[in-house]
Specification:
mainly alpha; Rna Polymerase Sigma Factor, Chain: A; 2 domains
Amino acid sequence: MLLKLGSVMPGKDPQLWTDVQLLELVKTDDLTAFEMLYNRYWSKLYLSAYNILRDQQASEDIVQEIMTDLWVKRSSSRIESLHSYLYASIRYKVFKVIRSGKIREGLFDEIEKLAVENEAERTLTEKDINKMLDQALSRLPEKCREIFLLSRKEHLSTKEIAERLGISPKTVESQITIALRRLRPVMGEVIFLAAFVFSSNFHG
């Protein structure tokens, strides 16, 4: 017998249900719960992919593939944090597309254009950029660096970081803002952008 949305928390607006509650319903083949998660995350995931790829079709395909996998593997998947899982999936799929070479040329043309406009060094390799990022991160205060990496590398939400470290969400937001303000001027605009294109190689 399948669980239904109204049978879990009657009287509560389904839009207020947590990811965990909806995932439990998805595991019981509740398509309505899946559609709610789909609508909750689709645009955010799309923008996350598009901000790097600058390719509408590729970004849409990536999100569709991830959400389809979520439904197909609903019974066997063990997801502790849907937010982290989805953004990690986006990260993996985006870099898979980049490394396939299908849109790399256009992507790096855009980065090179930024480099020209900002008179930045254009001969840096991926290894160079990651090294610069690691060095810049090492100059951040320890707690600031830890929070930044949890946010950008593990894609934890502000609330998840706050709970893990036992601090307030406001402190998390403040530390991420500080990190971004310090990293951007040190690395330069184009290198800062490229660093996040290559950020799957963070050493943390």
